[in-house]
Structures are given as C-alpha cells and as structure tokens.
Design goal:
The complex is a heterotrimer of chains A (about 180), B (about 180) and C (about 450). Chain A has a six-stranded mixed sheet with strand order 2-1-6-5-4-3. Chain A has a single domain, classed as Nuclear Transport Factor 2, Chain: A (Roll). Chain A is an alpha+beta fold and about 180 residues long. In chain A, a hairpin with a 5-residue loop joins strand 4 and strand 5. Chain A has three helices and six strands, in the order ααββαββββ. Chain B is an alpha+beta fold. Chain B is built from four helices and six strands. Chain B starts with 5 loop residues before the first helix and ends in a 14-residue tail after the last strand. By secondary structure, chain C is an alpha+beta fold. Helix content of chain C is about 30%, strand content about 25%. Chain C is built from 14 helices and 23 strands. In chain C, helix 1 crosses helix 14 and helix 5 packs across helix 14. Chain C starts with 16 loop residues before the first strand and ends in a 21-residue tail after the last helix. The chains are: A alpha+beta (about 180), B alpha+beta (about 180), C alpha+beta (about 450).
Chain lengths: ~180, ~180, ~450
C-alpha cells in the first residue's frame, strides 16, 4: 500500500468511529482479549512487520527498505495460530502476565480508493512492565487499511515500521 | 470470552463529535488543574460519591489471577473525605516534601467514550501518563489504564468512579504524590 | 547440604561509630564493600521475616521474597509445613518462580523444565531416562537450598545460617513486646491480601532505624500528615512515661497513652473498637502492655522488618545495594474484628502509610536525601549525630530489655548500630556478645 493515497478526509462521524476503534483495539491487546481482537480483523487481513536492516543512506537497495524478511507476515490464520500459542498456557515467559500500555498517537485518516476503506497512519508507543522492575518502551509507526463493514471498522492491512533494529527486550510477544 | 463483550458491542453506538469533544476537553482541563496544583478546583470535578481507586498490583500466575478487591491493599481507595484529607495535608504549609513543589505534566491518551444504560453516565477508557520531575534531577513516569464513570451533574461532567491500573510491578519511586 | 564457610571480617567495623560519644560514620550508608559484608554478616546470618501464617492458609500456597538479595520461595507443602528455599534452579541458576504469590503444586523452571515440589525438592527432569545416565545426578542432592524456618505466633522467619541461635533466642525478650501486638486477643492478627512494593534510592538502614526509635521526626516531619488525619497537630512531646526498649538490636519506642497511633488513622470506628477491647487486652497481656499497644509508637525487628502497631502497617526493607531499597508493605488487622473495622483499618492504613500515604510521602524524601548527600567525598567522611538521651538508661521493674526513658531518643538506634557492628565483626555466632540480661529465657512471655 502506498502511503500517498489521496488526502480526502472521511466524514467526521466515520473518522471518529475509526479513531475509537483504534483505541479500543489497543485496549483489547493490552488486556490480552485476543478473541475480541481477532474479531476486529477482516478475514482477508494482512499483518506485516518487516525486519529492519541498518543500511547506509547511499545504499540504493534501500528500495528494499523493508529489509530481507519479516518478523510478521501473517494472514488471519497465522495470527489465529499466534493467539492460540499465547493462550496455550505454555508461554512461560508471559506468566505472570506483563503489564502493557499501548498509546496510539498521531492518527491520520484518509479515504482509500477501495470500497468503504480508509488509510490510517499512526504512531504506537508501547510501555511494557515485565518481571520485577523491568520497564521497556517500544515505538512503531503503522500504516493501516481499515474497512467499514456495516458500521464496524475492520482492520484489512497493517504495515509496521518498528523503530528498534535490535530488539531491546528479552522477547517480542507483542502485537502492534 | 464467547459472548460479545459489552465494550465491543458499544462500538455500534459511537459517541457523537460533541460528546467526545466535551469529554476530551474535560480531561484536558482536569489535567491542567492538576499540573497547576489547583487541587480544590480539581476536587470540584468529582461527584460527592466519588470512588478514586488504584489497587495494589500483585504478580500471580495466570491460572490463579484474581480481580482487584476494595478490601485489599491499594495506593488509592478514596472517598471524598479521604481526598479532602490529602489536600488538607498540602494546605498545612508544613508539607516539606512538596516544598519546593513537584513539577508535573498530566497527559491523557486513547480516550474511548461509551454510552451506558443511564443517559447521564458515560464509561470512559483512557491511558493516563504522568511525568514528574522532583528535586534536582529526579524523573518518574507513570502509565495507568484508567476506567472512569463520568456523570452529568447539573449539565456538567463529573468523575464518579475512577479505576486506575498501575503498570509498574514494583512502584519505582519513593512516593506517589499525584492523582493519575 | 554443606553449610557455607564464614569468612573473616575484612576490617573492624566498630571504627565506624562511637556510641558513647554518640556518632556514626556516614560511609556505612554508602560504601559498596561494607554492603557486601552486610550481605554475609547480617543477611546470610540473621532470622528475617518472610511471611505471616495467614498469607499461606492452604497447602500449596506460596509467596516469594528475599533474604538480603537472595530470592526465596516460601510455600506450604502437602505435609502442612512451611518451607523456605532459594528461588533459583540449581541447574543453570534461573529464577524458579516469577510470581509474587499464589497457589502451586510444583515450581517448574522455564529454562529446561526441572520441577520442584512445594518443599523445594527436585522431583522431575524432562527426558530423564533418555538424557541422563545412571549416576549423572542424584536428585536428592540437587533440590533448592533450604533455609531454616521457625515462627513466633504466626510470624514466620527464616535464615540460611545453620549455626544461628533459635528464633526464640534471637527474638529474646522482644517477644514480650511483640505479644502486645500479635497476641493481644485470641484471634491474633492476620495480613490482608495485597502487597505494595516500591523502590527508594536510600540505604536500607535508614528505613529500619526510623521505625526502631525515631519518634522525634513525627512531630516535625509529619506535621502536615498529622493535621490532615487528626484535624490538628500531634500533641506536644511530653517525655513522661515514654520509653525506648531494645533487645538484640530489635527496638520499640512507645508512650503509654494507648491511642496515639490509632488516632492517626483518623477513624472513630477504629478508636471505638479498641476502646472497647482495652479491658480484654489488659486481662490477656497485662495493663501495661495494653497501654503500649496503640500508643504513639514504632518498632523494628533486626535487621529489616518494621511495623507500627496502632497504625497496623507491617513492612520489610529489602536491600538492593547500598543506595537502594525495596520496601514491601502489608496491612495487618485483628483477625476477630468485624469486617467494617478491618476495612476502616485497611483504608486508613493505606491512606497514611504507603508511597501515596499522607505520612509516608514525607519520609522517603528524607531517606533518599540522607543517602544521596554521601556522593560528596567530604560529606561521606562526616559523622552523624546519634547522641540524644545517652544518660537516660534505666532498669525498669516491668519492662524487659535495655530501657531508656523518653521516646525522643537515639538509644534504640545506637543499639541497632551496636548489634550491626557486633555481627559485622563476628566470624561466628559465638563471637556475638549478649548485650542485655534476659528475663524470659526459655519461657513464654505471655
């Protein structure tokens, strides 16, 4: 998806409903309510987080700015599998659970060319508290596509640019 | 979680622009009063039956997690009288740890407004961030999930319930001298 | 398991204080090498509070805490007994249990799946038959290292030192004072669920010595909190009938007004409850102790457990290096009190004594200041004054231990640092001098 699709705004009511959906999505993930989160995803969702690679600016292969591979390149089936793993009761590193706060900022919403779809840019700030006193802050930029389905916004695509070339946490069991 | 949760259902009835704007402006004003430490004016934003609650956070295995309970330890478990006593402390003139005063910035993010069965009450989810700077170089940032019940009283929004879920497992500072 | 070999004290720690002159050297609140010696000479040796019976009512109940910086699991095993053992897997050393508390049948290490029962015994290795040959491991030898566990009227203590005296001897006549709090009625006390943990950038000893004898700061430092909670200032200090009592480095400072600390809770319901209970209390622990309980008072058990009997807060000060501490706070209530009284205590105790407390908020600031100013080389080599009340030692017909009159006093603090130096200088328990004459040796205090 191009970041430069038109700059047409949505009608304000739709804009607000979509903003509320973004906040609700963040809260559902913070609360690990994965079934409710999966229900927010369109059946044809594509969820991608490319591996970041640090390159010199002059390196023109940066056309592959998305790097050589993906941390996530998931459809709904794969996301469902990830959720099943998290809910298996066997993810020791997540038990006791982490405390996570996802702050969604800089929300920009534009009408997309698809039917009833919108492009959403946002910045996600994740504050995560793990065992004892461990505290981490992660940031990521997201470009999404959302679809209005009978008054409910569903996530169709998400491209995540993660701002940490070295994962500075002991694991990355976290959706963005 | 089989049935569609209440808050997800509520998505079908999103808040109007006017309501959302009113709530956000209310929160910004609340934050500004706290940053200015105009706490008596802040207290006017609370209903008479306010319950201001930040339970202790105890790490338990998932299979044995428990919901927080008002009969247990808490950072805040306050009614209006309790909050009044906190403010009285600040007003004595002998509150040494607050002199010079703490510098704060209260921020409110992810404001989600839901209608409830009572047309005068709204459930509002948000993330409260408080930056503190104390003494010479001490910095502390607090991230809380916040679940409020706002009530319209004589036409004005008021806070009737506030549940703050603290993120830190070990509270990383010697004091909690703010109202997140 | 083999006990550890005690090391020789690397220096004479008595030089950091002169308690006759009444001063303590500031380096003991800052120096890393001194702290390392504390870990061995104090925290690997002394009995330390780990839990109250009410926190572990059922078999399988557990909590995690620390003896010094050694993490331990405290759990009630299927035999009904409480075991305390290192919270670390003896295979590669990973932390075994990451929860604060809960209920478990076993603890399984996240790394390779070694499993331990709630007595800390190694019970299972994944793929044991396939991975290990006969003779590779004797599971009985590779359980988690066990601490000794003893309890006093519901308070469970532990130590890793096989040569430490019994808990009864360690507490000594301090038991007489403890009874005023934990045994003043049939039901005793219970710990309410919930735990608040917080860090402060302060040396652990500042927190403890504040509770062991520092009534002095209440009048000045807590003026604001006192006014907020009681509607007026603390009554002016009157030394008459007020005391410092010290036993083996433990301390309790108190008046005999019976209600001074309870009043700080600012709850008429709690005051009324105890007013009604006082006669019964006097019949049970004697008139004197019924007046000690509830009065303006504070107390500490060496090295790092402290409480305010009338305010009902109970805490441990876990060392996290010489310049940092982790404070753990619980609220304690009389087990047989009506639910509404318990809740009034719970609310008021939290309102006054936790990081958001109207009194405690003014404390942490002081202890951090006490510690941080030592960053200066000159400051660090200064002395601190501990000379208040040097000539007020008395023998009291009813009060056991080392007694000084006047609760504004540095006596308990001096005796705390004396015990500290005694232990720091001792290679074994035999080297630790007995500084008081017990009245209750070998017999109960109630």
């Amino acid at each position: 998806m191009s970041a430069d699709e038109g700059l047409d705004m949505l009608p304000i009511a739709q804009h607000l409903a979509l903003t509320q959906a973004l906040y609700r999505e963040a809260r559902l993930l913070d609360q690990e309510r994965y079934a409710d989160w999966l229900a927010l995803l369109a059946d044809d969702v594509r969820y991608r987080l490319p591996l970041a690679s640090r390159r010199f600016r002059a390196d023109r292969s940066a056309a592959l700015a998305e790097g050589p591979g993906y941390v996530f390149d998931d459809d709904k089936g794969r996301l469902t599998l990830r959720v099943q793993r998290l809910e298996s009761g066997l993810v020791w590193a997540e038990d006791p659970r982490n405390a996570v706060r996802r702050i969604v900022s800089n929300v920009e919403i534009y009408r997309a060319d698809g039917d009833g779809e919108a492009v959403v840019h946002s910045v996600l700030e994740i504050h995560r508290s793990r065992i004892d006193a461990q505290q981490r802050r992660l940031t990521a930029a997201r470009t999404d596509r959302w679809r209005d389905t009978q008054g409910h916004w569903r996530l169709v695509a998400r491209d995540i640019r993660f701002d940490h070339p070295v994962v500075i946490d002991s694991n990355l069991n976290v959706f963005f | 979680m089989n049935a569609i949760a209440k808050d997800v259902q509520a998505a079908a009835r999103p808040p109007s622009l006017e309501l959302l704007n009113e709530v956000q402006q209310f929160y910004y004003r609340e934050a500004r009063l706290k940053d200015r430490q105009d706490y008596r004016a802040w207290m006017d934003l609370l209903t008479d039956d306010i319950h201001y609650w930040m339970p202790a956070r105890v790490q338990r295995f998932r299979r044995d997690e428990r919901a927080p309970c008002v009969f247990e330890s808490a950072y805040y478990n306050d009614d209006r009288h309790d909050i009044d006593r906190r403010l009285k402390r600040l007003e004595t003139g002998t509150c040494w740890s607050e002199d010079p005063r703490t510098r704060t910035a209260h921020l409110v993010h992810n404001v989600e407004v839901e209608h409830t069965e009572n047309p005068d009450e709204y459930r509002v989810y948000s993330i409260s961030v408080v930056y503190r700077n104390m003494n010479e170089d001490e910095e502390h940032t607090l991230y809380c999930h916040r679940e409020d019940l706002l009530r319209r009283v004589d036409g004005q929004l008021r806070i009737a319930r506030r549940l703050l879920t603290v993120q830190q497992n070990i509270f990383l500072s010697k004091s909690l001298n703010v109202f997140p | 398991m083999k006990p550890y070999e005690a090391t020789q004290p690397p220096q004479d720690y008595s030089r950091y204080m002169d308690l006759e002159e009444g001063w303590v050297d500031r380096r003991i609140f800052w120096d890393q090498a001194i702290y390392e010696r504390e870990l061995e000479a104090i925290f690997a040796r002394c009995w330390q509070f780990v839990a109250h019976e009410s926190q572990l009512p059922k078999n399988g109940d557990f909590l995690t805490t620390y003896l010094g910086e050694d993490g331990v699991i405290v759990s009630r095993h299927t035999d009904g007994k409480v075991y305390v053992y290192l919270n670390a897997c003896p295979h590669r050393g990973n932390k075994l249990c990451f929860a604060d508390e809960g209920s478990a049948r076993r603890f399984t290490c996240n790394y390779h799946g070694w499993a331990f029962n709630t007595a800390g015994e190694l019970t299972g290795l994944p793929s044991e038959q396939e991975a290990y040959d006969a003779g590779d491991i004797d599971k009985r030898q590779w359980g988690a290292r066990q601490a000794r566990v003893e309890s006093y009227k519901g308070l469970i203590f532990a130590t890793f030192d096989a040569t430490a005296p019994s808990l009864e001897e360690y507490l000594g006549d301090y038991r007489w004072y403890l009874d005023a709090f934990v045994d003043n009625d049939e039901g005793g006390i219970e710990f309410l669920p919930g735990l608040i943990k917080s860090y402060a950038s302060a040396n652990w000893k500042f927190g403890v010595e504040n509770f062991i004898g520092d009534a002095y700061h209440a009048f000045w430092n807590h003026d604001s909190g006192g006014k907020a909670m009681m509607g007026g200032p603390f009554p002016p200090y009157d030394p008459k009938d007020t005391f410092h009592a010290s036993v083996n480095g433990h301390g309790w400072e108190f008046s005999l007004d019976g209600f001074g600390d309870i009043a700080i809770l600012g709850s008429q319901e709690v005051l009324d409850y105890y007013a009604e209970r006082k006669a019964h209390m006097a019949a049970r622990v004697g008139e004197l102790r019924s007046r000690i309980f509830g009065s303006l008072a504070s107390a500490a058990i060496f090295p790092n457990m402290t409480f305010l009997p009338g305010i009902h807060t109970f805490r441990t000060w876990l060392p996290r290096g010489p310049r940092k501490l982790e404070l753990r706070i619980w609220t304690v209530v009389p087990k047989d009190a009506p639910q509404s009284v318990k809740q009034a205590i719970n609310k008021a105790c939290n309102l006054t004594f936790n990081p958001a407390g109207t009194l405690e908020m003014d404390d942490g600031e002081n202890w951090e200041g006490n510690t941080r100013t030592n960053a200066g080389w000159i400051s660090r080599h200064e002395k601190l004054h501990y000379g208040c009340g040097r000539s007020r030692r008395v023998e009291h017909p009813q009060l056991p231990g080392i007694i000084h009159t006047g609760q504004v006093n540095d006596a308990n603090q001096r005796l705390f640092y004396q015990r500290w130096a005694d232990l720091m200088n001792a290679r074994t328990w035999a080297d630790v001098p007995q500084r008081y004459t017990p009245r209750f040796a070998g017999r109960p205090t109630r």
